[in-house]
Design a protein that fits this description.
Layout: H1 2-18, H2 24-34, E1 43-45, E2 51-55, E3 58-62, E4 77-81, E5 85-88, H3 94-101, H4 125-141, E6 150-152, H5 156-164, H6 177-180, E7 216-223, E8 237-238, E9 247-251, E10 267-271, E11 279-280, E12 284-286
Parallel strand pairs: 4-8, 7-11
Antiparallel strand pairs: 1-2, 2-5, 3-4, 5-12, 6-12, 7-9, 9-10
Amino acid sequence: MRGVVALVLLVGLVLGAMSACARPQDAAERAAATTASVKRGDRVASGIGLSMVYVEPQTFAMGSPKDQVGFYDQAQHAVTISKGYWLGETEVTQKMWREVMETEPWKGKEHAIEGDTVAATLMDWDEAVEFCRRLTLREEEAGRLPLGYEYCLPTEAEWELACRAGSTARDEFGGNAERLDEFAVFRENRDGEHPHRVKSRKANGFGFFDMIGNVWEFCADEVTGSEVPGDTDGDSVRDPYSRGGEQRIIRGCGFYSVASSISLPIRRTMGHGDRYVDTGFRPALAARFANK
Protein backbone atom coordinates (compact mmCIF):
# COMPACT_ATOMS: atom_id res chain seq x y z
CA MET A 1 0.00 0.00 0.00
CA ARG A 2 2.78 2.43 0.88
CA GLY A 3 4.49 1.55 -2.37
CA VAL A 4 1.42 2.53 -4.37
CA VAL A 5 1.14 5.92 -2.70
CA ALA A 6 4.89 6.55 -3.02
CA LEU A 7 4.76 5.73 -6.74
CA VAL A 8 1.83 8.07 -7.26
CA LEU A 9 3.63 10.91 -5.50
CA LEU A 10 6.83 10.30 -7.48
CA VAL A 11 4.98 10.49 -10.79
CA GLY A 12 3.27 13.67 -9.60
CA LEU A 13 6.53 15.36 -8.71
CA VAL A 14 8.09 14.60 -12.10
CA LEU A 15 5.08 16.00 -13.94
CA GLY A 16 5.04 19.05 -11.66
CA ALA A 17 8.60 19.93 -12.56
CA MET A 18 7.64 19.88 -16.25
CA SER A 19 4.71 22.24 -15.86
CA ALA A 20 4.88 24.55 -12.85
CA CYS A 21 2.51 27.19 -14.25
CA ALA A 22 -0.29 25.08 -15.69
CA ARG A 23 -3.77 26.29 -16.52
CA PRO A 24 -6.63 25.25 -14.14
CA GLN A 25 -7.81 22.52 -16.53
CA ASP A 26 -4.27 21.13 -16.70
CA ALA A 27 -4.08 21.18 -12.90
CA ALA A 28 -7.39 19.33 -12.74
CA GLU A 29 -6.09 16.62 -15.05
CA ARG A 30 -2.87 16.26 -13.03
CA ALA A 31 -4.76 16.11 -9.74
CA ALA A 32 -7.01 13.39 -11.16
CA ALA A 33 -3.94 11.45 -12.28
CA THR A 34 -2.43 11.83 -8.79
CA THR A 35 -5.32 9.99 -7.18
CA ALA A 36 -6.09 7.54 -9.99
CA SER A 37 -4.61 4.59 -8.07
CA VAL A 38 -5.41 5.78 -4.55
CA LYS A 39 -8.14 4.08 -2.54
CA ARG A 40 -10.11 5.05 0.55
CA GLY A 41 -7.94 4.77 3.63
CA ASP A 42 -4.62 5.11 1.80
CA ARG A 43 -2.31 7.48 3.64
CA VAL A 44 0.18 10.22 2.95
CA ALA A 45 2.73 11.02 5.66
CA SER A 46 3.42 14.68 6.34
CA GLY A 47 6.72 15.95 7.67
CA ILE A 48 5.15 17.03 10.96
CA GLY A 49 3.94 13.57 11.93
CA LEU A 50 0.33 14.02 10.83
CA SER A 51 -0.96 11.04 8.86
CA MET A 52 -3.37 12.09 6.10
CA VAL A 53 -6.14 9.59 5.28
CA TYR A 54 -7.65 9.47 1.79
CA VAL A 55 -11.40 9.91 1.22
CA GLU A 56 -12.72 8.90 -2.21
CA PRO A 57 -15.00 11.16 -4.27
CA GLN A 58 -18.63 10.19 -3.76
CA THR A 59 -22.21 11.31 -3.22
CA PHE A 60 -23.50 11.12 0.35
CA ALA A 61 -26.47 12.21 2.47
CA MET A 62 -25.45 15.37 4.36
CA GLY A 63 -27.51 16.77 7.24
CA SER A 64 -30.34 15.32 9.31
CA PRO A 65 -33.43 13.38 8.22
CA LYS A 66 -36.19 15.93 7.62
CA ASP A 67 -38.20 14.78 10.66
CA GLN A 68 -35.18 15.18 12.98
CA VAL A 69 -33.72 18.55 11.96
CA GLY A 70 -32.56 20.66 14.89
CA PHE A 71 -31.73 24.38 15.14
CA TYR A 72 -28.11 23.79 14.19
CA ASP A 73 -28.72 21.15 11.51
CA GLN A 74 -29.45 21.11 7.81
CA ALA A 75 -32.19 18.97 6.32
CA GLN A 76 -30.68 15.85 4.77
CA HIS A 77 -29.77 16.33 1.13
CA ALA A 78 -27.55 14.73 -1.50
CA VAL A 79 -24.05 16.22 -1.80
CA THR A 80 -21.41 15.17 -4.29
CA ILE A 81 -17.71 15.53 -3.52
CA SER A 82 -16.21 15.29 -7.01
CA LYS A 83 -12.52 15.07 -6.11
CA GLY A 84 -10.83 12.77 -3.66
CA TYR A 85 -8.93 14.38 -0.78
CA TRP A 86 -6.86 13.49 2.24
CA LEU A 87 -7.78 14.61 5.76
CA GLY A 88 -5.71 14.57 8.95
CA GLU A 89 -6.40 11.46 10.99
CA THR A 90 -6.27 13.69 14.10
CA GLU A 91 -6.64 17.30 15.03
CA VAL A 92 -3.44 19.35 14.83
CA THR A 93 -1.52 18.86 18.07
CA GLN A 94 0.48 21.41 20.02
CA LYS A 95 3.73 19.86 18.80
CA MET A 96 2.63 20.09 15.17
CA TRP A 97 1.51 23.69 15.62
CA ARG A 98 4.80 24.73 17.24
CA GLU A 99 6.82 23.10 14.48
CA VAL A 100 5.02 25.02 11.73
CA MET A 101 4.04 28.32 13.40
CA GLU A 102 6.65 28.65 16.19
CA THR A 103 4.02 30.04 18.59
CA GLU A 104 2.02 28.72 21.56
CA PRO A 105 -1.35 30.52 21.61
CA TRP A 106 -2.62 28.29 24.42
CA LYS A 107 0.28 29.00 26.79
CA GLY A 108 -0.84 30.39 30.16
CA LYS A 109 -4.50 30.57 29.12
CA GLU A 110 -7.39 29.48 31.34
CA HIS A 111 -8.54 25.88 30.80
CA ALA A 112 -5.55 25.15 28.56
CA ILE A 113 -2.99 22.48 29.34
CA GLU A 114 0.31 21.76 27.62
CA GLY A 115 1.40 18.53 25.97
CA ASP A 116 2.84 17.49 22.63
CA THR A 117 -0.17 15.31 21.77
CA VAL A 118 -2.85 17.66 23.16
CA ALA A 119 -5.07 19.22 20.49
CA ALA A 120 -3.84 22.73 19.65
CA THR A 121 -6.44 25.45 20.29
CA LEU A 122 -6.85 29.20 20.79
CA MET A 123 -5.77 30.12 17.26
CA ASP A 124 -8.19 32.09 15.10
CA TRP A 125 -9.39 31.02 11.65
CA ASP A 126 -6.84 33.11 9.76
CA GLU A 127 -4.02 31.55 11.75
CA ALA A 128 -5.32 28.07 10.95
CA VAL A 129 -5.33 29.03 7.25
CA GLU A 130 -1.78 30.36 7.59
CA PHE A 131 -0.70 27.07 9.19
CA CYS A 132 -2.00 25.24 6.12
CA ARG A 133 -0.22 27.65 3.76
CA ARG A 134 3.10 27.19 5.54
CA LEU A 135 2.68 23.43 5.70
CA THR A 136 2.02 23.36 1.95
CA LEU A 137 5.28 25.21 1.29
CA ARG A 138 7.23 22.90 3.63
CA GLU A 139 5.87 19.75 2.06
CA GLU A 140 6.36 21.06 -1.47
CA GLU A 141 10.01 21.90 -0.76
CA ALA A 142 10.51 18.45 0.76
CA GLY A 143 8.97 16.73 -2.28
CA ARG A 144 6.08 15.24 -0.30
CA LEU A 145 3.18 17.22 -1.78
CA PRO A 146 0.85 15.28 -4.12
CA LEU A 147 0.66 17.01 -7.49
CA GLY A 148 -2.22 19.47 -7.78
CA TYR A 149 -2.98 19.39 -4.06
CA GLU A 150 -2.45 21.78 -1.15
CA TYR A 151 -3.02 21.80 2.60
CA CYS A 152 -6.12 23.78 3.52
CA LEU A 153 -9.11 23.70 5.83
CA PRO A 154 -11.73 21.18 4.73
CA THR A 155 -15.07 22.42 3.49
CA GLU A 156 -17.81 21.44 5.89
CA ALA A 157 -19.10 18.96 3.30
CA GLU A 158 -15.69 17.29 3.15
CA TRP A 159 -15.58 17.34 6.94
CA GLU A 160 -19.03 15.75 7.33
CA LEU A 161 -18.32 13.06 4.75
CA ALA A 162 -15.23 12.02 6.72
CA CYS A 163 -17.10 12.23 10.03
CA ARG A 164 -20.04 10.15 8.85
CA ALA A 165 -17.85 7.34 7.52
CA GLY A 166 -20.84 5.91 5.68
CA SER A 167 -23.52 6.61 8.30
CA THR A 168 -26.79 8.35 7.32
CA ALA A 169 -28.05 8.83 10.89
CA ARG A 170 -28.42 12.15 12.69
CA ASP A 171 -27.52 10.74 16.07
CA GLU A 172 -25.16 7.82 15.59
CA PHE A 173 -24.97 7.29 19.34
CA GLY A 174 -28.61 7.74 20.37
CA GLY A 175 -27.63 10.12 23.16
CA ASN A 176 -26.02 7.12 24.83
CA ALA A 177 -23.04 8.39 26.83
CA GLU A 178 -21.60 4.90 27.28
CA ARG A 179 -21.51 4.22 23.53
CA LEU A 180 -20.30 7.73 22.75
CA ASP A 181 -17.50 7.23 25.27
CA GLU A 182 -15.81 4.81 22.86
CA PHE A 183 -15.32 7.53 20.23
CA ALA A 184 -15.44 10.97 21.82
CA VAL A 185 -14.34 13.21 24.70
CA PHE A 186 -17.29 15.23 26.00
CA ARG A 187 -18.59 16.77 29.22
CA GLU A 188 -19.62 13.55 30.95
CA ASN A 189 -16.37 11.62 30.35
CA ARG A 190 -13.65 14.28 30.17
CA ASP A 191 -10.84 14.10 32.72
CA GLY A 192 -10.70 17.88 33.09
CA GLU A 193 -12.06 21.12 31.69
CA HIS A 194 -9.46 21.39 28.94
CA PRO A 195 -8.51 20.02 25.49
CA HIS A 196 -7.37 16.40 25.62
CA ARG A 197 -4.68 14.45 23.83
CA VAL A 198 -5.67 13.19 20.41
CA LYS A 199 -6.36 9.50 19.70
CA SER A 200 -7.54 8.83 23.25
CA ARG A 201 -10.67 7.16 21.82
CA LYS A 202 -11.44 4.82 18.90
CA ALA A 203 -11.22 5.91 15.27
CA ASN A 204 -14.38 6.01 13.16
CA GLY A 205 -14.99 3.70 10.19
CA PHE A 206 -12.81 5.78 7.87
CA GLY A 207 -9.86 5.88 10.28
CA PHE A 208 -10.32 9.38 11.77
CA PHE A 209 -9.98 10.12 15.48
CA ASP A 210 -11.92 12.72 17.49
CA MET A 211 -14.21 13.80 14.65
CA ILE A 212 -16.80 14.08 17.41
CA GLY A 213 -15.76 15.61 20.73
CA ASN A 214 -12.50 16.90 22.21
CA VAL A 215 -12.47 20.23 20.30
CA TRP A 216 -14.65 21.90 17.68
CA GLU A 217 -12.93 22.13 14.30
CA PHE A 218 -12.69 24.99 11.80
CA CYS A 219 -13.97 24.45 8.29
CA ALA A 220 -13.16 26.54 5.21
CA ASP A 221 -16.69 27.89 4.81
CA GLU A 222 -17.29 31.62 5.36
CA VAL A 223 -20.84 32.74 6.16
CA THR A 224 -22.80 35.85 7.14
CA GLY A 225 -24.65 36.30 10.42
CA SER A 226 -24.84 34.13 13.50
CA GLU A 227 -27.18 31.53 12.01
CA VAL A 228 -25.91 28.90 9.63
CA PRO A 229 -27.26 29.74 6.14
CA GLY A 230 -28.94 27.33 3.79
CA ASP A 231 -27.06 28.24 0.62
CA THR A 232 -25.25 24.91 0.51
CA ASP A 233 -28.13 22.64 1.44
CA GLY A 234 -30.03 22.26 -1.85
CA ASP A 235 -30.42 18.73 -3.10
CA SER A 236 -27.82 17.36 -5.53
CA VAL A 237 -25.25 20.01 -4.61
CA ARG A 238 -21.76 19.50 -6.02
CA ASP A 239 -18.72 20.53 -3.95
CA PRO A 240 -20.56 23.08 -1.75
CA TYR A 241 -18.36 25.82 -0.33
CA SER A 242 -19.74 29.05 1.21
CA ARG A 243 -17.50 32.12 0.95
CA GLY A 244 -17.56 35.83 1.65
CA GLY A 245 -18.99 36.24 5.18
CA GLU A 246 -17.48 37.26 8.50
CA GLN A 247 -18.46 34.11 10.40
CA ARG A 248 -16.75 30.73 10.18
CA ILE A 249 -18.29 27.26 10.29
CA ILE A 250 -17.13 24.94 13.08
CA ARG A 251 -18.03 21.27 13.36
CA GLY A 252 -17.68 18.30 15.66
CA CYS A 253 -18.54 19.43 19.24
CA GLY A 254 -16.00 19.60 22.07
CA PHE A 255 -15.19 18.74 25.65
CA TYR A 256 -17.88 21.16 26.92
CA SER A 257 -20.61 19.41 24.88
CA VAL A 258 -23.09 17.17 26.70
CA ALA A 259 -23.85 13.73 25.29
CA SER A 260 -27.51 14.52 24.64
CA SER A 261 -26.56 17.47 22.39
CA ILE A 262 -24.03 15.64 20.22
CA SER A 263 -24.94 14.62 16.68
CA LEU A 264 -22.99 14.05 13.46
CA PRO A 265 -24.47 16.98 11.48
CA ILE A 266 -24.42 19.64 14.23
CA ARG A 267 -22.88 22.86 12.89
CA ARG A 268 -22.24 26.26 14.41
CA THR A 269 -20.47 29.50 13.61
CA MET A 270 -17.90 31.67 15.33
CA GLY A 271 -16.50 35.11 14.61
CA HIS A 272 -13.75 35.57 12.07
CA GLY A 273 -11.16 36.61 14.66
CA ASP A 274 -12.48 34.69 17.67
CA ARG A 275 -10.38 32.10 19.45
CA TYR A 276 -11.57 29.57 22.02
CA VAL A 277 -9.97 26.94 24.19
CA ASP A 278 -12.32 24.29 22.77
CA THR A 279 -11.74 25.05 19.08
CA GLY A 280 -8.95 23.74 16.86
CA PHE A 281 -8.78 22.15 13.40
CA ARG A 282 -7.47 19.34 11.22
CA PRO A 283 -6.15 20.14 7.73
CA ALA A 284 -7.24 18.64 4.45
CA LEU A 285 -4.96 17.92 1.52
CA ALA A 286 -7.20 18.83 -1.38
CA ALA A 287 -7.30 20.12 -4.97
CA ARG A 288 -8.57 23.67 -4.51
CA PHE A 289 -7.76 25.19 -7.94
CA ALA A 290 -11.40 24.96 -9.04
CA ASN A 291 -12.48 27.16 -6.12
CA LYS A 292 -10.07 30.02 -6.77
